[in-house]
Amino acid sequence: MTPKQQHAFDKSAFKISMVQHLTQLGHAPDTAQLRDWYLALGRALAEHTTSDLVATEHDQAIKQAKSVNYLSLEFLIGRLTGNNLISMGLYDAIADAVSELGLGLTDLLEQERDPSLGNGGLGRLAACFMDSLAAQQYPAVGYGLHYEYGLFRQSFHEGAQQEAPDAWREPEGYPWELVRPELSQIIGFYGHVEVVEEAGHTYRQWVPSLKIQAMPWDLPIVGYQSNTVYPLRLWEGRALTPFALDAFNAGDYTHAQQADIDAGNLTKVLYPNDNHDAGKTLRLMQQYFHSAASVADILRRHLEAGHALAALPEYETIQLNDTHPTIAIPELMRVLLDDYRLGWDEAWSIASRTFAYTNHTLLPEALETWSEALIARLLPRHMEIIFEINHRFMQEVEAKWPDDVAKKQVLSVIDDKGERMVRMANLCVVGSYAVNGVAALHSQLVKRDLFPEFDALYPGRIQNVTNGITPRRWLKFCNPDLSNLISEKIGEQWPAQLEQLEQIAQYADDTAFQKIFMDVKKRNKQRLAGWVKEHLDITLNTDAIFDVQIKRLHEYKRQHLNLLHVISLYQRLLNEPDFDMAPRVVFFAAKAAPGYELAKSIIYAINKVAETINNDPRVGDKLKVVFIPDYRVSMAEIIIPAADVSEQISMAGKEASGTGNMKMALNGALTIGTMDGANVEIREEVGDDNIYIFGLDVDGVSELRQKGYQPEAVYHSQPLLKAALDSLLDETFTPGQPGALRPVFDSVMGSGDPYLCLADFADYVRAHNDIDRDYRDASQWARKAILNTALVGKFSSDRSIRDYVNNIWQLEAIKR
Ligand code: OX2
């Protein structure tokens, strides 16, 4: 607690406030349930953050400074209460206050439902970035959507994934959010473009035929010990009935396609795709709704602060989190051209110095394209503007590479092979002053493989900012025992200056420290084992290696490679009398996109294998497999501190960065990983001896592809692998249903496996054998674990944000 906050906190006043909120909720202290008390606590705390939020909004210094606007369709913020208490420096004081009311703070915190307003890494990154912006006091507003249903809730029925809606705010609403009707916007769709003449000039004007109200809800992003609260502004779609009547009367009927899309549906659901583009009309409507409302709000703030329109790039920068908000570029152009009547060159000069774009993937299926026909129907004026942007851009290409049709074809914003499509990534690169990848290797590949022509045309535009994670949530809050141990050794500054963890390295060989460090790990493993016992009724050996793979389910992440290793361990335990292994618990947690059949088959296979192994008395506690359902931020907070081994096993070149890899290393887990994404940089930091690298690297992958990949040959040459694969075809794991796991078998056999699972199997097993050997040497293992915690300070999202600030955004911190 900072002295200022300590001074400000009045325990008895706070208790009175909690009881008042409880009363307003219609409950009496003697009969209220835990959940009622949690809501009262949240509301009492939110009073403070709301007043800080408003104060920050009115801060003249901030109005006169440059801000970043982080536009993202996803913010996977996780529970706010505990984290905000840490940031406010009030955790212990509130624990004390609620205990005087006869309550346990951790029980109250458990009542909060995760706002799962994101899918995976991309959304969680946005949340970590907001945390780091507020902690370091770089002026910022996060703009997202207020989905009524977050990512679905996952359960398993006989091993198969079931999805249920996640009404995260129901029934009482979310205590931390504040609706801001005075800041609402009206957003148009469909309609036509008219030509208007004024004072000898002609202008184009879009006349939408459908209008929807964008209602903002602000969530407070509380800066760690910084007295700064920035808004995460989430737009909700609301019907504007009177207008629809006008339009109807005017005979301006909306297109039949959109008949079933009313305003209330617009922000109902978060699309459950991660790293995959599904191209649905409603999704484009969400994207435009988000972009247009955010652009309007940014311009409102800019103009209200008294700045000239032309000075927009000096005061506001707009970061596009992936291509999802790309339509903000033509939207800003439309507003500047048609509403403010600027000339094209001036408007373009403003827009193209305002936007910057982060690319998160090279996977072709995740690179968004929208059909020209759809955009032209939904956003007719924007399609005109996109054509004009591209026309001028093609002239630029012609000037650089005269008569080079091939160059124009790859660079064009419009793909006209077949149905004409707008390539959103190309539009982003053309309309942004900076483009970045999310880890060193990934950014290199963006330049080399995805956008080599753009890199030649605009040298220096494509940069790297390696991802990071907030040490507040991902160490201080989720792992209090380790945090206390670290603070005892190096003081309390590390959550704001993670590089300081390096000082822990000096204790890596200290046997007394090793013991305390591993005792902490053990308690975290016991906590997780307790959760598993209570919720899944599986008894775990907490001396076992806790081997963890937690992330979205995707072929490229290769959960099925992990599964093949698990099966091979099982078979060796049964078949090889001399086989000895350190006990292991292999944890999985992952949601599959509901429409992604193979991902669901992999989940089913893991569950079936787990069921068989966990109930086979011959295995005892040597091997257990646990699939934790409904993976979410609050679950990650329990799993990550308990991990010994972190599985980061994507095929090289496919995982742009990964951030779970950073979280687990920070909490003292050792990575088993390919040379992919940020694994490469984690290895640089922790050193070769403290990470288990295996498999083909990016060059190895392309060599193998060139040679011709033949999984059958691998299958026939490796008996361990063959036996594991064969067991997917018989009844070993699906009694009475032979072949039920065949989709997984088929996906890795045949030359069709783009992710080369079998090619990496042998080396993966070798790396796991090394882990098994090293884990048995408790002191050596402790040393490696300590060094992981000590040496990953680089991966603080504070550092990522400083990279953006210095290399891209050019912001000044505004101290409050
Ligand atoms: C993810 C990437 O897959 C992951 O590697 C990265 O760490 C994360 O974004 C944050 O940068 N959808 N999710 C991602 O990319 C896309 C597209």
From TrEMBL:
Q: Per the record's keyword annotation, is Transferase included, yes or no? A: yes
A Gene Ontology biological process in which this protein takes part is: glycogen catabolic process
Q: Which Pfam families does the record match to this protein?
A: Phosphorylase
EC annotation from Swiss-Prot or TrEMBL? 2.4.1.1
Top-level EC class: transferase
The cofactor(s) it depends on are: pyridoxal 5'-phosphate
Question: What residues bear N6-(pyridoxal phosphate)lysine in this entry?
Answer: 663
Reactions accelerated catalytically: [(1->4)-alpha-D-glucosyl](n) + phosphate = [(1->4)-alpha-D-glucosyl](n-1) + alpha-D-glucose 1-phosphate
User: What InterPro entries does this protein's entry cite?
Assistant: Glycg_phsphrylas (IPR011833), Glyco_trans_35 (IPR000811), Pyridoxal_P_attach_site (IPR035090)
Q: Name one GO cellular component term.
A: cytoplasm
**GO MF, one example:** pyridoxal phosphate binding
KW Secreted (keyword) present: no
Could you list this entry's UniProt keywords, alphabetically sorted: Allosteric enzyme, Carbohydrate metabolism, Glycosyltransferase, Pyridoxal phosphate, Transferase
Biological role stated in the UniProt entry: Phosphorylase is an important allosteric enzyme in carbohydrate metabolism. Enzymes from different sources differ in their regulatory mechanisms and in their natural substrates. However, all known phosphorylases share catalytic and structural properties. Allosteric enzyme that catalyzes the rate-limiting step in glycogen catabolism, the phosphorolytic cleavage of glycogen to produce glucose-1-phosphate, and plays a central role in maintaining cellular and organismal glucose homeostasis.
**Which family does the record claim for this protein?**
Belongs to the glycogen phosphorylase family.
**What's the protein here called?**
Alpha-1,4 glucan phosphorylase
Q: What is the lineage of its organism?
A: Bacteria, Pseudomonadati, Pseudomonadota, Gammaproteobacteria, Vibrionales
